[in-house]
Design goal:
The protein is an all-alpha fold. 84% of the residues lie in helices and 0% in strands. It has 3 helices and no strands.
């Protein structure tokens, strides 16, 4: 249960950071959590495919989630432009 809570907290922080980085604001609490959690899954998969890992612990997880969220928002932006 505690790990799920940390996963959601890291997802919220990563989603908020990605929102700040990509468009200058967040998406609200639920939007930030959704972007961060999907970003964490995408980032975890991508880092695994590349054989990379930024380190263990919550900071490493936050980095992976942030990178994944940035990629997610970039892809969403590409799709919306069409």
């Amino acid at each position: 249960m505690t790990e799920l809570l940390w996963f959601l907290i890291i997802g919220a922080i990563a989603g908020w950071l990605a929102g700040q980085f990509m468009k200058g604001r967040g998406f609200g609490l639920l939007g930030d959590i959704v972007v961060g959690v999907i970003g964490a899954l995408l980032g975890g998969w991508l880092f695994g495919q590349l054989g990379l890992w930024p380190g263990g612990g919550r900071i490493g997880s936050l980095i992976v989630a942030f990178v994944g969220a940035i990629i997610l928002l970039f892809l969403v932006r590409l799709i919306k432009r069409r």
